[in-house]
Structure formats: C-alpha cells, structure tokens
Amino acid sequence: MDPTRLKILHVLMDGEKCVKKISELVGLNQSACSHQLRTLKHHGLVKSKREGKFIRYSICDEHISEIIEIGSIHIGEKKR
C-alpha cells in the first residue's frame, strides 16, 4: 500500500475528520489529500459524510483498523 494512504488511515483511526485536518496531520496539500481519500473510498477503506459544505471521512469499519494495527505491529517486529 502507498505510504501516504497508510498515513491517512492511521490519522482516521482516531475518528472522522475533514480533508483540511487530514491534510494538516499528514503533511499534504488539500488537493493531493482529496485524491488519496477518493482512492481509499473507491477501494472501500474509508467512507464519507457530508455536513453542510464539508465532507468528513472515517474508516469504513473496525476491521480496517484492526488490520492496520496488526500490520504496524508486524512491521515493528521485523525491524527488531
């Protein structure tokens, strides 16, 4: 998986956020962040919810969070 998309998923593990907040936390401009979120949404990893003129993104379900956590632990063990 693309490292930027993985960073976005890590940020969303803390709860739903708008593109502006995600882009600040990940260090991307909003356009690039929106493009990555669109890809994640297309693959069923994130969902969106419109609130007025803002769109808030979150991880689709708890299984995605579990997979990310397990993968992060596995990567950490390999680095030892």
TrEMBL record:
It comes from the Bacteria. InterPro entries: ArsR-like_HTH, HTH_ArsR_DNA-bd_dom, Metal_resp_trans_reg, WH-like_DNA-bd_sf, WH_DNA-bd_sf. One of its GO terms (molecular function) is DNA-binding transcription factor activity. It holds the Pfam family HTH_5. Residues 1-79 form the HTH arsR-type domain. SUPFAM superfamilies: Winged helix' DNA-binding domain. Keywords: DNA-binding, Transcription, Transcription regulation. This is HTH arsR-type domain-containing protein. It comes from Kosmotoga arenicorallina S304.
